[in-house]
Specification:
mainly alpha, 144 residues, two-stranded parallel ribbon
Length: 144
């Protein structure tokens, strides 16, 4: 009888930050490197609802830092949906960032300051709000 060997890959330990945060971190770091930017801080809210800014307990200190320390020129998000999930919060935060000269960069979407980039930003903000509400309604229905 011929012998054979079997290699089994065991699952890695569960990451306390969740499944997608490490991948988002890598994508944002790559984007920063592509642009020659230095990451000075990170805002992570694992397992928290980002439906409204009031629920963003890690994001609020970052906005305060932008307002008071004025040491941030760019904010890199993995996707616009990681910034806000409704159009109102998106508009308020973006107005605040622009007022302070801070540019928002998405690691995976084209939302630059060009007319096309701003159109895409608006469309994505509307879609993210729709998706958040639709997912919430679906979860409520399934739990009922």
């Amino acid at each position: 009888m011929a012998s054979s060997s079997v290699t089994r890959t065991l699952p890695s330990p569960i990451d306390p930050e969740g499944i997608s945060i490490p991948a988002q971190r890598v994508a944002c770091q790559k984007k920063a490197e592509q642009l020659g930017l230095t990451v000075i801080d990170e805002c992570v809210e694992p397992g928290k609802s980002g439906t409204t800014m009031a629920n963003r307990i890690s994001f609020q200190p970052m906005l305060e830092r932008v307002r008071h320390l004025k040491d941030i020129d760019y904010i890199i998000v993995h996707k616009l949906s990681r910034l806000s999930r409704n159009r109102y919060d998106d508009a308020v935060v973006m107005a605040d960032l622009r007022k302070r000269g801070v540019t928002l960069i998405s690691a995976s979407e084209s939302i630059d300051e060009t007319p096309v980039g701003q159109l895409m930003h608006g469309i994505l903000a509307a879609f993210n709000e729709y998706r958040s509400r639709e997912d919430g309604a679906d979860i409520t229905y399934k739990m009922g």
